[in-house]
Fold these 4 entries.
Entry 1:
Amino acid sequence: ESPSPMLFAFWAVGPSWLPSAPTGAPQTRRASRASRSSAARALAKSAAEPSGDHAEPCNVVLTHTNTDFDSLAAAVALARLWSYQRPEVPTHVVMPRGVNPLVARFLAYHKHLLPVRGFSTINPSDLRAVGVVDTQTRERLGPAARWLDCASYVAVYDHHVDNTPNIQHDELVIEPVGSATTVLVEKLRALFDAVGGAAGGGVGGAA
């Protein structure tokens, strides 16, 4: 059976995602509530650390504010897609402001597996391409909305067909499916199919 779109998106990040948990995961799963709170605080602190003065050209994929699992998985999928379509510079996932409590707990354990960067670690002058997932409006991007004016290329991927986009874009993909993740996973699967047998080890990360 085909994996769910969200599972597929996270699996596509690399070989370590599904086959095994991170080292020490059993102990982590037994961590106390206090330990989990400490992990969440450490995550927030790392997200707030400023970047250095040197230029770091990059692409960024933005979730909407109060990130949920659909926007996170869709952003990860687009970052993976761009790592092959736009390999000249790295692509990071940025959550502009706030996350769903369940997503925060998930990231406390698994952020190191994902291409996530803190909002304040990105210098807007370094931006090349910006992707927006699971929304079509600037208002839902919080403080990151101004980044749209800094990038040379803006792509929007969404599944809310009844909304009216107000983001100036170079690429707009809106499909009437159940999730934004599905939109991006379909593109990932097309990429995997296009590269044929090489997709198993080189693109998908599975042996």
Entry 2:
Amino acid sequence: DSSDYDLTRNLADIDPSAEVGLYFESYLGWLRLKGDIRKGVGGGHQGALARLDMATAIRAGARDTLFLGVNVTAADQSYMEAYFGVPTARATPQVPAFSAKAGPRDANVYASFVHSFQGGMYLSIDGGAGRLLGDAETSPIAGTLDQVLTQFYLGTVIGYRF
């Protein structure tokens, strides 16, 4: 909720949004390319996002693979305004009005270690860092929250391949 932080207290909440889209993934020798295009439907942002991801896959054994990669995400104006724009009617001295335009949203570097088990199960351990770009970075919402501009993450996934 926007009321959780003093800085965003005067801004409207953004409802959750379902997204529909297209996804691709292709291996070209040592290079893995993947990407997606998504559009918010129903409530929420109603915007469109596109992500391009490039990674190299390093086999570390018969069942183990290390992926090292980068990705970049861009968004349309509807998405950028929902998350990074500040309407004039909701501006404050601490958070001035700001019109967020379509363009890059963020870039990330990451590493993923994937261990495949027999029968289609796998375990992935993921870590990386991301940085806001363009109007997402210069928005008064993100620009005053230093911890928002660059974020680090670590996670794990247990999955099944069909």
Entry 3:
Amino acid sequence: MSNNKQEMTFKYVFTYDYSPTYVNGAHGGISPRGELVMNFYLERQPLPNSISHQITPTGTIGPETEVEPEDLGRSLVRHVTTGVVLNYQTARELHYWLGEQLKQMEAIQQAREEMAAEQGKSQATH
């Protein structure tokens, strides 16, 4: 503490396997204990288990003849990477924090759009 002010310093400790993960969705809800459960996932098209191709008379790979599974084109995969469980107070604090981060992201996006519009105007006059 400095100058008799009440203050606290938080030190962040990362595990050796800390690895930020890209997610583009979440699924979850309220648990029987009243906690918020969020399971984060990456939604993408699935990869086939196997693809068979015809071999052309010249020995090169020709068109596909079979894809496993057959419904590959009608499927999506939600690869669940991690999940979190939050009590009410932590969920409220995270909600507030996310709101503040979104305000900053929106300000940055607006500044980028204004800059692009200005560049468009200056290019149109030259």
Entry 4:
Amino acid sequence: MPYFDPPGWEPDRGLDVAIGLLGWECERTEGGARDDALERLRRACEAGPVVVGPIEMGLFTHQPWSRGVADGTDHWVVVLEVTDEVVVMHDPEGYPYVTLPISQFMTAWSAEKVAVAGPYVMRSNFRKLRDVRVEDAVRESLPYAVEWLSKDSAAAVHRISAMLAGGIDEGMREHLAGFAVRLGARRLDDAATWLAVVGEPAAAEIARQQAMILGRLQFPIVQREFTRAAEIMTELAPGYERLHDALK
């Protein structure tokens, strides 16, 4: 499934990098038996919030559009408490203090179809090491951005464009229309905003242009105008190399 991430992107690694750049450290644990993982999570919550993931978002049935079917979509949440019956968490999809039955949560947390990290990954015991301005963290992240932009994003874009031109199935259309396109456009627009803040106006302008192109993809995807969607998708290809060159 397309997510408009750099080729080879590892969100689990990205999370560790972001935590460090912002001046924090934490304990990362993973794996083990299901019951042991649950007990580990319960104990960790007694000391503070716990970042849990990847989890299988398709099994998060508190989300009204969920079909309760694992589809490999990774997700992360902040768990606040584990009671005898439910897990209490903040879900960044827009659900604060939402609950999920323990059995459902644990199945989602096993992440059997998620191609990221492994089962029962969590980060707990967060400790602040130093004060870091967000602007400084963003500036220090730019070498990582250059590294990821050195991958062949253009080739990936052309592959997706070819898929669109040939017609995509309903599952992929729903994924693009309901999630991936808006997420990708938002990420690019956020990147443009922060690149401008840290004094990278040329890169900011390129990122903004990429966001605008991707945003135009939403309507034809929803309306099943796949030929038009493929044409728009192709327009994205040269922008990634331009963004790389502007930042290196």
